[in-house]
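Researcher: Structure prediction, please.
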Amino acid sequence: MKQDFLIFLDFTKKLWKNRYMLKMMTERELKATYVGSLFGFAWAVINPIGLVAIYGTVFGHFFKSKPDPAYGTESYLLFLMCGMVPWQFFAQTINGSIGSVAKNATLVKKAVGFPSEILPVVTVLSHVISHLIGVTILFFLTIAFDGGVSPWALVIFVYIFFMVIFSVGIGWILSSLSVYLRDLNQVIGLALMAWFFFTPIFYPAARLSPGALRILRWNPVFHVVDGYRLTMLAGKPPDLAGLAYLGAAAVVTFAAGGILFRRLKPGFAEVL
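Model: Predicted structure follows.
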């Protein structure tokens, strides 16, 4: 345990030491994603709105889904968007992190001393920008549909912080394992699809049985979605127990991911 703690401590020191490189590579990742495309950064707006329009039409119009009254809104669009915006951030960071080490194989193999641990972090940070754009749109839509937002909505940034920490930890785990397990990308695609449906994004959690709800509460993303809806739509304080669980899950995953990445890192150059 002590050795793992020292490994993680050294790992985080290296992240801080390479913060300038982290900043530069994040900017490069953003440019590679958006600059040069027809709509550029507008895709950060088009993607979430497009998905909400599709799911909103299918579940809101055809299946007549309604938001949970506990969230204080009659707009299924807002209810859905409060689920889709954080989920899109989480799913994009996970999908991007899996191959972040493998796709930079040249740097990892030939650049002596290159801090490969920053690669998954770069992926997560680049998607934070897109997510903040989505959150801004959500703020304006809530004002337009519900007439305003509560000061409690600012708690969303606490959820974003924990989600970033959680995503970086998972990114370290998956990116390091995928160097040795090339089929992992396909497995994670299926896992994310299941994770999506086991998160109450397009359906109210109140419809679930108490037993099913207890199981779903083990899902950290459940508490992110619930937190967005409680603070943004209902104007209520967050569920402190859920927020505490999310924070604990984020910190544990971050630490475990860092330790695993550090232990597997010495073999990257040889395998790649």
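Model: Residues 118-146 form the longest helix (29 residues).
Researcher: Thanks, that helps.
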